[in-house]
Amino acid sequence: MNKTILIVVGVAVLVLAGIWFWSQQSSAPSQAQQPSSQEPSDNTASINADLEALDLGDVDKEFQGIDADVNSL
Amino acid sequence: MKHIIGGVILALLVAVSVSAHTEGDVQGIVKDAVQNVRKEATQLRKEAVDQFKAKREEAKTQLKAKTDELKAKVQTKREEVKSKIEARKVELKDKLKTVRDEKKKQIVERVYNSVNELNERMTDHFTKTLNQIQEVLDRVESRADKAEANGLDVASVRTAITAAESAIASARSAVEAQAGKTYSFTVTTEEKLRSDVGTARQALHTDLVAVRETIKAARDAVKSVAVALGQVPKVDEAEVSED
Question: For B139, which residue in chain A has the nearest alpha carbon?
């Protein structure tokens, strides 16, 4: 009787450990799922987003300090 | 009668045998044809993939060469004008000896430094932005290459790419020329300091705005390529497998 209980408990522990291990594996981001290279995407949405995000520079803003000095002369 | 029945049976057996033989031949011919078509398709696919890979490798090399070249050219121009800027600074100090107001002298010298530093900073920024535009264009080309390898028509994209390359080249020339410019002041009298300094300030402003316009034109040209690319049906689904 005791032997049977021990076997049942042992199997239950193994099953629980298996479930815990599986849940850890599926929740952690797999290394294989990470992009292997740093090459940016070439789909049209990504291209358009990067074109919109380009900073051409604000010339007038850059002159603010200089203009303050020139105006104080 | 027996002979007749035997002859008919024999004829039937021969007919069945010949028919089975012909059917087997036809099946073999069809099988061979299918195999040949498959082989040709695989070969064509492999050629398209190889062509795509070669194109991309070449594009990567060219992209790096272009970005490195612009950086190097800007750096060379900067080195060339460095001594010029320093020499004119000394000349300015000399000219400012006629100005009695020490505070104004300091401001003029500061503005001289600021104007030339701003030119350096902005040309650096333009160089960086232009290289980013070139990188985006490379990605557009990559997508177009994939589409072409999958049999899609990208002729309009190729035309737009040529126009964008030209716009980028113009912007590169403008940035490079700007990096080689210096801004000095012609000090006339103490009373006219503001307008004398203002003239150099305005010259830099006009030049930087003009260069920025060329960068904007390059960006807009690449945007046009992206629009043309977006009009290719299912362009984002086109992929080139390495297998």
Answer: A42
> How many domains is chain B partitioned into structurally?
1
Give the model confidence (pLDDT) of A18-65 as tens digits. 777 776 654 443 333 444 456 788 888 999 999 999 999 999 999 999
Smallest Cα distance from B21 to chain A, Å: 55
Q: Which amino acid appears at position B76 of this protein?
A: T
Which residues of chain A neighbour B187 with C-beta distances below 8 Å?
none
- Does B109 reside within a domain? yes
> What does chain B look like in DSSP terms, one character per residue?
-HHHHHHHHHHHHHHHHHHHHHHHHHHHHHHHHHHHHHHHHHHHHHHHHHHHHHHHHHHHHHHHHHHHHHHHHHHHHHHHHHHHHHHHHHHHHHHGGG---HHHHHHHHHHHHHHHHHHHHHHHHHHHHHHHHHHHHHHHHHHHHHHHHTT---HHHHHHHHHHHHHHHHHHHHHHHHHT---------STTHHHHHHHHHHHHHHHHHHHHHHHHHHHHHHHHHHHHHHTSTTGGG------
| Segments making up each domain of chain A, as ranges | 2-26+44-71
- Is residue B240 situated within a structural domain? no
B160-199 burial code (b ≥16 CB/10 A, e <16): bbeebbebbeebbebbbebbbbbbbbebeeeeebbebbbe
Give the DSSP per-residue string, B119-148.
Answer: HHHHHHHHHHHHHHHHHHHHHHHHHHHHHH
ipTM, 2 decimals?
A: 0.72
In a domain, B184, yes or no: yes
Which residues in chain A have their CB less than 8 angstroms from residue B230's CB? 44, 48
pTM exceeds 0.80 for this model: no
Domain that holds residue B143: 66-229
B84 CB burial (10 A radius; 0-12, 13-18, 19+): middle
